[in-house]
Amino acid sequence: MTDALTSATPVSTADARPPRRIRVPEKLRNLEIFLLLFACIINAGAVVMVQLGALGSIDVAQLVLLGAGLSVLVIGMHIALRFVAPNADPFILPIATLLNGIGIAEIYRIDIEQGSTGWDMTAERQVVWSAVAIIIALVVIIALRNHRVLQRYTYVFMVLSGILLLLPILPGIGREIYGARVWIGIGPFSFQPGEVAKIALAIFFAGYLVSRRDSLSMVGRKVLGMRFPRARDLGPILVIWAASMAVIIFQHDLGTALLYFGLFVVMLYVATARISWVIIGVVLFLAGALVASQVLTYVSDRFANWLNPFDPVNYDALGGSYQLVQGLFGLANGGLIGTGLGQGSPDITPLAQSDYIVASLGEELGMAGLFAILCLYLLFIARGLRISFAGQDDFGRLLGVGLTFVVALQCFIVIGGVTRVIPLTGLTTPFLAAGGSSLVANWIIVSLLLRLSDTVRSQPRLVV
Description:
Blueprint: H1 2-8, H2 13-16, H3 24-54, H4 60-84, H5 92-114, H6 122-143, H7 154-166, E1 174-177, E2 180-186, E3 189-191, H8 193-217, E4 221-223, E5 226-228, H9 235-251, H10 254-272, H11 275-295, H12 297-307, H13 312-316, H14 322-334, H15 357-390, H16 394-418, H17 436-458
Antiparallel strand pairs: 1-2, 2-3, 4-5
């Protein structure tokens, strides 16, 4: 009887198979490699267009070095992510790759115009710095298996950021370039420690505000419907404000001071959800900038160049508005669709490869191309904020917001200065501009966001 029943109810072979599982990490990484290859093709195409526009022929050796060099590096990083961070966000790396590659192509275009060859080419040095930056980013993401480890070293990063900020003003190693003392130099090697200091400050601010946010948000007096902090709770913001003013006074760097202070105010607002901190921060910085414009010649000249750039007195002055005006003329020459890669005259503007890379790209790609680049930055910032608010630990949320806001605020300061929305500063556009310090710092931000997104996706979800 048992045999008959068994034979009468056969078991389907399909039902006996184990259920198929959705392999999300592989899907994320497959999407990433598709986007990476697309970005690498665009970067190589940009180099080819530069060569055809400026030289009239294709230089295969330079195409391999500038086009394939960055592609090999980022694909190697992608392969490493499949093992060490399989759940990482699939959009961060392709966006950073595309921005870095477009920057290299435009820097190469200016090298051609200036007749630079070999190691004198800024584009070749930019590729080398990209390799160094990506390797450092890979080391960070391999060594740091969980972002929460950073919270243990909150005050270590505070000390580290202080040391990095003080290095440029030390005699012997400090270097003053174009009026700003933000560099250190040892022999032929130079570096801008403030770029790395912004990452250390973001980690310190995140750890500090997580432990102190209750006292900064719960207590205070209501004025006009907003709860303002007590006088004794103003200590942290006053200290950061004083440090930012010190950067303006001793290092002559208005942009870096705005970046550091703005970073703290935004993270303070996110931690406490009190708009009163933003109001206090804006009032403090405007008051400091107003006093500095009346006392410091460096700051007053920047404001004069901003308000009256076409005044012959400002235009012809040493360190005047000549650079700003040339950048505006370049943007105007680009028009809607640009002159085409390799067919403009971006080299007329001083520092066209670094501080004014946005004006160079705006001339040759036009407003449409510049808008596409801004959309890439917006997408990068949106992914960073999405990663931040998807986390379940407060430190990770604040850290993600801080790292993302560093990129956002730096873009606003640089592009706003070039387009005369705000006074011009000496910061560089993330990923695009020539400069090893900026590349290293921004690729470290990429690695931290990738690690943060992998940790967020890998952690168990709360079910209500």
